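Weekly structure sync, notes
Attendees: PL (lead), two postdocs, one rotation student
Agenda item 3: pending single-chain targets
PL asked that the sequence for the first pending target be pasted directly into the notes so everyone works from the same version. It is reproduced below exactly as submitted, 401 residues in total.
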Amino acid sequence: MIITIVFFILTVLSVVALAGILLLSAHCVISYMRKKTNPEQLIRLKKMAIFFAMAVILNVGLIAFSQLTSSTPPIVDEKGNTPKNSIAELRKLELNGRKQWISLRGWDKNAPVLLFLAGGPGGTQMAAVRHELAELEKHFVVVNWDQPGSGKSYYTEKIKNITVQTYIEDGHALTEYLKERFSQEKIYLVGESWGSALGIFLVDKYPEFYHAFIGIAQMVDFAETERMDYAKTLEIAQSKGDTALIERLKANGMPPYYGKDVTWKSAVYLNYLSAYMAENPEIQNPGYNTLRDICSSEYGLLDKINFFRGIINTYNHVYQQIYTINLRTDYTKLDVPAYFFLGRHEVNAPTVLAEEYAQVLEAPDKEIVWFEHSGHSPWINERAKFIREVLSCFSENKTKE
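Predicted structure, written out during the meeting:
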């Protein structure tokens, strides 16, 4: 946190110094043209340039230091002791030639492995999962993966080259690594929002690698979801008489969107619906703690910047590639148990689509688990129940049935 504050102060001072340099340079040029050179102006300009250079050098040093010292905190018990067989690592891997970051956390490194797939595309929830779901670390080795184009893995691949297949290939490679690293034939898979679709893609293609899958806020039909979200936002805005928002929605038109403004156009209704859920008194602990998450030790200064760049740039590029995906027709048979954790007050990922998918899906076991006081994020809204249900769905007896 201190490094972030110092970085911010130095950045502001750098901007001020740069503005001063430009202003003094203009004065010096004018003075020179008028043949009225002022030595004091040149001295001030030189001092300002030196200050600017030092501030920039210090900031570069801070960035490098923060990136090199980023880490995930050790596992500690109630007495502050670190369990003997625990694991708490922040690790850089090469998956299919692409360098990416994961965190591995658990009280017992011999416990089953649970891979958490973050939402997005372009989102990172490495710190959020640690803060919200620490209890799971007592039962699993919980693995969080910053996918290509997100957070610590933002520079893994040029954004323009990232496709859905990139995520599937790298998710498979990561699974292979985890199986070998922990000597396990299969692992457990949990996906949130976009990650819930990626999870389906993985268990469909590589069912032999996974015990079971949980989809949180299960995404089913991406184009239809966008149209329903747009219509819901318009309905709410009209009921509230929010004419400014209505005009913006109508100006953008009905999704799906394509081009360079997908993120910004989608944000008009997605942010509105998120705020709508946050105001719902039936939803417990309604929102992300973004400031806490971004200030967490897993992220260096550059990662903190890329935290947002991934949400904006990667989302914009990848999301328009997945409008044609419809799980109800494309992924109707899975050879892995599948469970869908849905918030009763969800509006971002319409639950009716997940219910329709569950009806047509053939799987060894399937179930919808409802969270009565949740919106889009049951793992945050109702943490205690979420953990109980994960343990229930991922129990050895259930997954072997």
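Discussion points:
- The longest strand covers residues 87-95.
- The mean pLDDT is 93.
Action: rotation student to compare against the earlier draft before next sync.
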